[in-house]
Design goal:
By secondary structure, the protein is mainly beta. The protein contains one helix and ten strands; from the N terminus they run H-E-E-E-E-E-E-E-E-E-E.
């Protein structure tokens, strides 16, 4: 399981370094932590425009429910700003892969499957911080067709990073100040 965790970490870090290497980026990036009742991990959102984002997660979970896992998740999300643009709802889907000890017998198996996600986020107006809550059900296709119960609900805190060459606000849906 440690080898899978290391490979997933290297993959997510290389995606982040590739994305931040461009000098003229104008899309916000938000990085933070995601906590779940059975574990948690890291999360990063890369906004393609004010309404679309790609989210990457590295989650560990299942410790409390007796079947530990480590997964990397990639999600494509659509964001809708509400009447107060600090609030928005989001939904989307994606894929996950990783390792899962389904039977708690210290025999991890590789997994691959699909995820859905829906949630709400609040982004503060004066500080580059967003707080969100989400529901993320998942189904494994490899190694068995099975519902994946780990990390199904979560709460995240993300910091919006300033972008080089951009005068845009940290909030993806607000015009530049």
């Amino acid at each position: 399981m440690r080898k899978v965790f290391l490979q997933i970490s290297v993959l997510l870090l290389s995606m982040l370094s590739f994305h931040t290497a461009h000098a003229q980026m104008t899309s916000p990036i938000a990085l933070g932590l995601r906590a779940t009742p059975d574990g948690g991990g890291f999360t990063g959102k890369f906004y393609l425009n004010p309404d679309m984002a790609i989210e990457a997660q590295l989650n560990g979970g299942g410790v409390i429910i007796g079947n530990p896992s480590v997964t990397a998740v990639g999600l494509f999300e659509y964001h809708i700003a509400l009447a107060d643009p600090s609030w928005r709802i989001f939904f989307g889907g994606g894929i996950h892969f990783g390792s899962w000890d389904r039977y708690d017998d210290n025999n991890s198996q590789g997994i691959f499957g699909i995820d859905g996600i829906g949630g709400v986020e609040y982004v503060f107006k004066n500080i580059p911080l967003g707080l969100s809550a989400d529901f993320k059900p998942a189904i494994n296709f490899v190694s068995d067709l099975a519902f994946f119960p780990n990390n199904i609900v979560g709460a995240s805190a993300r910091f919006y990073l300033p972008m080089k060459g951009s005068k845009a606000s940290h909030m993806p849906h607000h015009p530049a100040k």
